């Protein structure tokens, strides 16, 4: 919002929400080939691409690279974001106890490592079908910190007695033309990332029971969730910008403006951290499943399990292969998060790289082939126009994020990030 202002910000949010909703409905229809009730199931995103667009071709390879690279990048982004929220709790308490006299500089490394340790434990959840409880907790936390952020934004506006911000965002003069351009492009990527769930949509849809058809249920879920999500995004974005104007922090709950009531800020940041713990698991499950499926075809050790009785719970099946490889996976995301702890820049780049291929390109191509939409028909042209506009937006966002990361790297020493 601060980069694009009161005109561009709302328009971009509406654009991404509308495109994501429409494309998600197209993607939901790709869960089954043929009949929506009895047709062949496509349990994963890449399986749908292989079934509809063909296996072993360029589409197959491109989809695999895009989906798994972006899911991996998202895990890194969530590790950074989760650790920043954990640090914010420590900093707000430090400011409160010192009366604002202590600058309270804190290294991010211990908090990134702590987040990683939690993920090592949770990564032993076998698959999507057994993480319902974690998803529910994450959703509750999401509502909690959104409402807190919105409430604090409203309180700040009331305290200021006016709505801050401008029609076009941060003015040229305060920043150079190049910085303004990169900032707007990065903002596009941040908003695109906020709506990026298409790459795990079919994996989630695979957990839905039928009848009615999985596509019918998923479409209804898409409509409700996108409506709620877009509403919260706009409310929080608008009130945050109204509260701080062009100097709005990248994250309201970790920005400099909110230290009182510090306990409420702490609750909000704790909710963010818990939410991201669950979101991390949701986004890495497709990677876990794909690697383990491929490994099982080669090595019998993958299927070895040991039952461990946990008091009050059903026996847990511990897989040595899963324990070792998933732990190594979390270690790599933790290491890279420590190496490049640039929250907004990383999120912008991930959003830019993932939005067009996973949210727009593949749903459009699969829908055209599956529904036999005639080339050059009105619907075909409209879908291609949306795809072209989306790739332009994605490229612009990627350029902006890369430029911002390059600037950050000039001032940054690896593994020594202080906030």
List strands and helices in order, with pairings.
Elements: H1 5-28, E1 32-33, E2 40-41, H2 45-53, H3 58-98, H4 109-122, H5 132-160, H6 177-194, H7 201-205, H8 214-244, H9 262-298, E3 306-308, E4 316-318, H10 320-339, H11 343-370, H12 378-410
Antiparallel strand pairs: 1-2, 3-4
Helix pairs in contact: 1-8, 1-11, 2-3, 2-11, 3-4, 3-9, 3-10, 3-11, 4-10, 5-8, 5-9, 6-11, 6-12, 11-12
Describe the protein in words:
It comes from Flemingia macrophylla. Belongs to the amino acid/polyamine transporter 2 family. Amino acid/auxin permease (AAAP) (TC 2.A.18.1) subfamily. This protein is an all-alpha fold. It has a single domain, classed as Orthogonal Bundle (Hydantoin permease). Helices cover 69% and strands 2% of the residues. The chain has helices at residues 5-28, 45-53, 58-98, 109-122, 132-160, 177-194, 201-205, 214-244, 262-298, 320-339, 343-370, 378-410; strands spanning 32-33, 40-41, 306-308, 316-318. A two-stranded antiparallel sheet has the order 1-2. A two-stranded antiparallel sheet has the order 3-4. It is globular. The chain starts with a helix and ends in a 9-residue tail after the last helix.
């Amino acid at each position: 919002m601060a980069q694009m202002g009161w005109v561009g910000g709302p328009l971009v949010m509406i654009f991404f929400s509308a495109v994501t909703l429409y494309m998600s409905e197209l993607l939901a229809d790709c869960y089954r080939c043929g009949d929506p009730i009895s047709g062949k199931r496509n349990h994963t995103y890449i399986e749908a691409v292989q079934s509809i667009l063909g296996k072993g071709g360029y589409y197959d390879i491109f989809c695999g690279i895009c989906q798994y690279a972006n899911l991996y990048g998202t895990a890194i982004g969530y590790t950074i974001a989760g650790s920043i929220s954990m640090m914010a709790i420590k900093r707000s308490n430090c400011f409160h106890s010192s009366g604002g006299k202590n600058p309270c500089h804190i290294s991010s490394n211990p908090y990134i490592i702590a987040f990683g340790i939690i993920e090592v434990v949770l990564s032993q959840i076998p698959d999507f079908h057994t993480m319902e409880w974690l998803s529910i907790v994450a959703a509750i936390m999401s509502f909690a910190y959104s409402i807190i952020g919105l409430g604090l934004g409203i309180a700040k506006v009331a305290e200021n007695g006016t709505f801050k911000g401008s029609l076009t965002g941060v003015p040229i003069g305060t920043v150079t033309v190049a910085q303004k351009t990169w900032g707007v492009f990065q903002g596009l990527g941040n908003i695109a990332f906020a709506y990026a769930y298409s790459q795990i949509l079919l994996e989630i849809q695979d957990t839905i029971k039928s009848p009615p058809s999985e596509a019918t249920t998923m479409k209804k879920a898409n409509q409700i969730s996108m409506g709620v999500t877009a509403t919260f995004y706009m409310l929080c974005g608008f009130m945050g910008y109204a509260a701080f104007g062009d100097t709005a922090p990248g994250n309201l709950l970790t920005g400099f403006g909110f230290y009182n009531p510090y306990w409420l800020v702490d609750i909000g940041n704790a909710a963010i951290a818990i939410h991201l713990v669950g979101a991390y698991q949701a986004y890495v499950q497709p990677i876990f499943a794909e690697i383990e499926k491929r490994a099982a075809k080669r090595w019998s050790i993958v299927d070895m399990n040991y039952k461990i009785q946990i008091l009050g719970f059903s026996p847990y099946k511990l897989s040595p292969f899963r324990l070792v490889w998933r732990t190594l996976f979390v270690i790599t995301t933790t290491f890279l998060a420590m190496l490049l702890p640039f929250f907004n820049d990383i999120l912008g780049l991930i959003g830019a790289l993932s939005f067009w291929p996973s949210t727009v390109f593949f749903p459009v191509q699969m829908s055209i082939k599956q529904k036999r939409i005639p080339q050059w028909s009105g619907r075909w042209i409209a879908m291609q126009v949306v795809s072209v506009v989306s790739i332009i937006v994605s490229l612009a966002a990627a350029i902006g994020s890369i430029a911002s990361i390059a600037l950050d790297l000039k001032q940054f020493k690896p593994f020594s990030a202080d906030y």
